[in-house]
Amino acid sequence: MSCNRFLFILNSMRFDDRTTRNYRRSEDKLTAVRSMLDQFVYNCKTSYCLSEYLTIDEMLVPFRGRCSFIQYIPSKPAKYGLKIFALVDAKSFYTGNLEIYCGTQPDGPYNMSSKPFDIVMRLLDNVTGSNRNLTCDNWYTSYPLATELLKKQTTIVGTLRKNKKEIPVDFQPHKNKAVNSSFFGFQKEIMITSYTPKKIKL
């Protein structure tokens, strides 16, 4: 295929009815690709059995075109792009579920909470109750999330931000704690660990 032919097809490609797009955009920022995206996510959910070890994190797909919800994340290699929350199998790296972050959606069926707790519960919706384990970073991990997942027969391992109000005072960073020391706390089904690493001097 020639370059000109490829560019023509790319420019002409559509995944929805343009005549009704403006009306549908009033309740969904992803209206131009919604039907294709929903089918893709459905296939991800139903075409593969995830292992017992799962992860949730965000990824940034590089993009600088016309889009109202492009994100800037300086810690990512691309820095600008579309942010996607994804549930991934930690063994096979298969994506089992995903959501594209659109900021605040207009009022309607796609206006959903962007709080970490709610994102995790939506992504795990079709695998809870199956005794799987989730690993995630400190943006998602919280005590309320851990207790709620336990009710759904799902465990979680993750780091906690030190400003979380549910962390006991004894587990907070302190200058008198010995380097490489660990401190453990237990409940019936939940454990918390505080580790003091060696400070990196620059």
From TrEMBL:
It comes from Macrosiphum euphorbiae (potato aphid). PANTHER family: DUAL SPECIFICITY PHOSPHATASE 26, PIGGYBAC TRANSPOSABLE ELEMENT-DERIVED PROTEIN 4. This is PiggyBac transposable element-derived protein domain-containing protein. Residues 1-199 form the PiggyBac transposable element-derived protein domain.
